[in-house]
Amino acid sequence: MKLTASSSTLSLLYSSKHVIPPVAARYMGSPTHPIAPKITHAWMTRDRNALWWRVSVSHITQLKRVIRSWCARRARLAFEQALKDKGFDHLGTPLPSSTLLPPQDALTGSLDLIVRPSLAKQSFKTVQQDAHSVLESLLKQRAVHNRVVSKGSEVPPGFERA
Q1: What is the rounded CA–CA span in Å between residue 109 and residue 142?
Q2: 88 secondary structure, DSSP code
Q3: Ramachandran class of 35: left when φ > 0, alpha when ψ lies in -120 to 50, beta otherwise
Q4: Domains in the chain and their CATH numbers?
Q5: pLDDT tens readout for residues 60-70
Q6: Centroid of chain to Cα 81
Q7: At 109, which helix (H) or strand (E)?
């Protein structure tokens, strides 16, 4: 299952399968690279019951490195807060203290949070709202997919069977 969501400052790409991040794939693809064994071991032993998520600043390469780092940090903090507000920890597992929220399955798979250039000019409150909206969109799409798959009916366009 692959899902996407976007807002004015963030785009989200989600896959229910765990995907090797591009940087790790670069090292794993070169067996002679000195850290290839370490990266391969990390990949093989990584928790498969967690959400693997990362922030990508590849769309704002025109900005200086310090600005890209600042944008990535803002996006990461906003997304972690959105996860917490929805009753998840930073790995996508439901928090035990979220008794006010309905019980939910853990988020698993891979998620890329892509920073858009407009994030650099927005307030942190706007970034937080966008993080909440893309996470909400992901949870809704995931619920629809799970409902459709559990009924055994045809999968709607844009969804894949896991």
Answers
A1: 12
A2: B
A3: alpha
A4: 2-151 (3.30.230.10)
A5: 999 999 999 99
A6: 13
A7: strand 109-115
The residue count for the chain = 162
Residue 148 has phi, psi (to 5 degrees) of: -65, -45
Which residues are within 8 A (CB) of 140 and not within 5 positions of it... i.e. 6 or more apart?
A: none
Query: Looking at the whole model, is its pTM more than 0.70?
Result: yes
Average pLDDT along the chain: 87
Sequence-separated (6 or more) residues with CB below 8 Å from residue 153? none
Encoded tokens for 41: 């071991």
Beta carbons within 8 Å of 66's beta carbon, 6+ residues apart: none
| Cα(87)–Cα(131) distance, integer angstroms | 14
Q: How confident is the model at residue 18 (pLDDT cuts 50, 70, 90)?
A: very high
Q: For residue 95, give the DSSP letter.
A: P
